[in-house]
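Review box. Two proteins, two foldings.
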Amino acid sequence: MTPRVLLVGDEVDRLLAIARRLPAEAVLVTGAEVPPPAGPPVEHLPPITSAAVLREQLGHLIAVHAARAVVVDGPPHDGILAATADHPGVTWLWIRAAMWRRGAGSAWRGRSAAFDGVLEPGEFAAAGDEGWTVTEPVDTVAPITRYDRGELLPRPDSGEQPALVLRGVRAAIDGFQVIDVDARALRRADLAVARAGYSTFHELLSAGVPTVFVPDLAAPDDELARARFAAAAGAALCYEAGTDLDELLTHAARPEVRAALARRCAELAFENGAQQAADWITAKTRDGRDGKPLAPARVTDASGTSLP
């Protein structure tokens, strides 16, 4: 069997972005819903009830897929740490998120020692990061999005009704039609109203979609800091508690406001770090264990479809 790389976590868009750029075949291990077409094979990880169950599940998947590397995108729970000790011949890598809210996530301090490498996905709003990770620097890459800007579908000719995209927020704007599109087709949107989670935030900015961010204040990552930073940079609008959301949306719907936001996004465009992350995983896997390069994977297009 060709050895594989296991990509473990629920930040599906980020892991899919990395998976199709790896030179080795990857397997996505997740409890989250995976949108079609996913690209790599998927192993659905059921809700974990104990560290022992997680340890056993990971051990089983490592054996089934002859895994040479396990990349954990998310908190390294006790069951994961136990599995790293069980399988010392496997390269263990941690994609450690930044931008934690103050007081959140500190339980994961010190767990980097169990891994052969730790990578931090870049943040557009990194200057506003006040979380615990800023005092523990690790390898970093540019913000990771599913697609490079050149892979995004072009903006179509304007229709009769402007299009509105919603991501995790319920909203309505007079005269706008709500559409459902994937990350590659975001340029169809004339306006978005969205939470400021990692993937959504960076995908909308990268696509240049005028956006009103409505941060989830209960999320472990600091969505408010992300949204405020984008607003201060002139690249988005940020909903603040106590303000009138309907009034903010009416303001955002004005053509001149949307044009200014889209223009500012283009001026502040950032590189996609997905290929950098894939290269980092490849180098760590090659150098961290037996020195042999990862076996080549299928070649895929932007949607994950196999090519000859």
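Next protein.
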Amino acid sequence: MSDGLFLAVLALGCLLYLGWGFRVLPKERWQILASVPLRMEPGGQWQGLNLTWYGLLSANAYWMAAALFWVLLRARGTQEMVILLFAALLLALCVPASSWMARLVEGKTATLTVGGAVFVGLLASPLALVLTQKILGVHIELLPLMAALGAAYALGEGLGRLACVSFGCCYGKPLEAAGPLTKKLFGRFHFAFAGATKKAAYAGNLEGRPLVPIQAITALIYLGVALAGSFLFLRQHYGAGFLLCVLGTQLWRVCSETLRCDWRGGGRLSAYQWMGLICIPFALLVSLVSPVPMEAPVRIAEGLGDLWQPAPLVALHCLWLGIFLFTGRSLVTGSTMQFHVHGDRI
């Protein structure tokens, strides 16, 4: 498979997936995936645990990001254990950071933040690289690793915006309060969330009202950044690819919050905007001080073929399950259930 065909197939598949999500996920039906009965209450009703589409869509996004990370690095010939260990170290920090960073910034125990997790992960990635080198006793070039990580992150967060559409979080400003240009741009394409359990409804009192589709805009921008970053990686422009991914995603993070209506903390700039701004000079510093990588062929067909080996498949599916269980167990919604027998079918 050629580089162009790989990127075209990836782009088409992601656009179809995003298009489906933009169309159906704002509806009430697409928030709760399933409910599991936990305990019976007096009167014969069961209290249940809700499993959410947020969790499933988040797990899908992590799976795709990790798969792209694997494919790009294996296409360059990076050792399997290097990829697995580095990714495991980074995820062991970033996944819980999505919870405790939200608790630190917003004071909420049932909220997750991708922005906070990305900030922690980016700053910790050189340390994860050093630990990987120490444990495996090998030398690892930093820039190719960071370039693949940047493209994978952009793809993962872009696709992960569908989880926000399903839950109704990270919602945009009401169109009625927007300027004339914004109203004109999004008069026909906007989100209107249905259901009292959507966050836009219970936190913003915005159920059914047309909102700026900030999640969709972010998803499309990040997808474009991921594709461009992957193209530069395949052309062995690792520093440029890494910088593009960090600048593209973090500058948009700073700008996008001006179109959001959910509470992001106090101050003229939110804590997440400051995190995005701090990531930019850090990325510039990494690009400037990192040694120039050795020339090595990048064969995308080999990276794709290697994805279907047992080690990456097991790791990816374990990651999917872990993320679903971490993000999919709803802490802000509940359910009651009653079971009965259909008398006419006995």
